[in-house]
Structures are given as C-alpha cells and as structure tokens.
User: What shape does this take?
Amino acid sequence: MSKAETATGVKLGRLGDYVGFRLRRVQNQLSRDFVNATANRGLRSGLFSSLALISANPGISQAELSREIAMDKSVTVSLLDDLERRGWAARKRSTQDRRRHALYITPEGERELEEIFAVVSTTENAVLHQLSPAELMLLSELLDRMYAVCVREE
Amino acid sequence: MSKAETATGVKLGRLGDYVGFRLRRVQNQLSRDFVNATANRGLRSGLFSSLALISANPGISQAELSREIAMDKSVTVSLLDDLERRGWAARKRSTQDRRRHALYITPEGERELEEIFAVVSTTENAVLHQLSPAELMLLSELLDRMYAVCVREE
DNA sequence: AAATATAGTTGACTTATTCAACCAATTTGC
DNA sequence: GCAAATTGGTTGAATAAGTCAACTATATTT
Assistant: This one.
C-alpha cells in the first residue's frame, strides 16, 4: 500500500487506493501550471489543443475536432470564432461536402503554436524530469492502454 | 515515438509528445465515467472527494479541506452546506479554536460513501484491468513522484 | 491593547458546460 | 427521384463552476 498521507498531514484514506484520484491530482496541477504559464496570452480552455489539432490535421472539420477533444460542437464554433479573430486559423467551405468547414492554421497561428509548445515543454519538464526516459515511455504506454479501453467502450 | 493517430484517424501531431495530454485524455474519460455512473445521485463536483477526506480525517477544518483539494474556501462552504443538507456530514464548532469548524461524517454519509466507492471501483476496474498489478503499482508510484514535485514547487 | 493573521461566510462576477432548436447540405430507403 | 433521416454548423438560453473581494469573528503577535 502506498503512502496515504499528504505533506500537510491530511490522510487520503480509501481515496488513496484509486488511480483515478492520483491521476486527477497530477493533471489538475499540470493544468494549473499551464494556465499560469500562458496567462499573458489569455488562452481560453481548449484553444491550444484545438489549434494543435488543426495544425496536425489540415482541413479537419469542426465536427471531427469536436469529437476528438470531446467538446460540444457549439463550443467549437465559438472557439473557431476566437481563433479566426486572432488570425490563427481559418475556415474554408469544403467543396466536396458543402456543409463542412475545412479548418486550417495560418502562419501566425503556427508561430504562436510554436511558442505555446515551448512554454508547455518547460512547465512539463519541471515535473517530468523526476522520471527517467524509460519511466516516461512506460507511463505514456500505460496511459495509452488505459485510454484505448475507454474509447473502445463508448 | 508512440502512436500519433487516434481511432478516428485524427493525428495528434506534436500534442502526442506530451505526457500532460495523455494524462488529460485518460483523466477526462475516467471523470466522465464517474459522472455517468453516479448521475442518479446528483453529486456535484468535489462532493465525493470532500466526503471521503472528511471520513478519513474526522475533525478536519474547512480550510484544511480546501487546501487539500485545491478548492477556494468559498466553494468549500457551499459544498459543506450541501453535505449537511443531505445529512452526510456535520460541522461542529471547535472548542480549542472557536473560529474553526470541525467536520465529521455521519453514519448516513458513511453508508453513502461506501456505495459511491463501490461504483468508482467498478468503473475504474473497467479501465484498469488492462494493466497488471505490477504495472498498476508502478503507475501509482510514477504519478506520486510527479505530484510530489508539483507540491514542493508551490 | 493594537496590529496582524486565520477561519468561515457572503455576494458579485466571469467563464465553462450543457442543451434544445434551427437551417443547410447530404445520404438513405423506398 | 423523392421523402425521411442524418450530419455539419450556428445560435441562444440555462445551469454549473471557478474566481475574487469584502466582511465578521476569533486567535496570535508584538
């Protein structure tokens, strides 16, 4: 059994037996770090990952994007409005299927993305340099295996 | 390099290089599972973990609880109002320090907590049985090491 | 005893999340 | 080929979450 007490002397009790709890703790902290590190840019939640996915999948549709990051499609609309306003991404009406918007990142968006990735790397490394490269790979693999089940079950 | 493409054919691109991203994915899914599985009880966010921590730390104060789950103390107030209304927890004015509320779980709360833990176990196991016991322990250990750094840095 | 700090509460404000309704374009089933 | 159903995108309303400053009461510090 792993340590059931925190730095402040508060006991975790049975909560400490759940991986989900540990996962959430770490993730919350990483996410707070991210928000702090990028506060000056005023990035709303989901904006960074949307931009990254558009960059990696030029021409992706809003529906696909929504599915991938599990956002309601209405959120995607306003996120895209935001990205277009900033000049970081653009919607182009698809010629094959005229319902769809094909999404593209702009050069400015690409530059911005580059900078944000650099910031994320820095904050992540602050936590991850605790782990050896082998452990890091293992961690990723375990998380992927867990995620694969989640998705399959839907 | 691990797989950079998802089930739907969407590429993760550089996003796939970040452990934080994988962590978030899995955590989001687990958290959705939890919400679905407990939807009938109408548990607001933070209520379950608060109750569990009160159970593990009888007499804990609201401030300590707030710190432990990184909630604003005003949120803790309304969470406690909720828990008292349900009859799952009670505030008692501390006699040593009359500013503090010492928090206690009630027998009903304990029963409810038991049930919720059972539900959580079920949903978590659906994902975790993918991992061997050894891998599970390793995962917990890695997460704890990551979390330890987060906390130390504050 | 005055100044400072901590515990809890309240209310205002901002941001996220969820949901239903709607239009336009496409696909499916006769 | 046409009606019905589905999908992609948009809008707006409703609810929930998260953040913050102000305030009371009690403790602690000096």
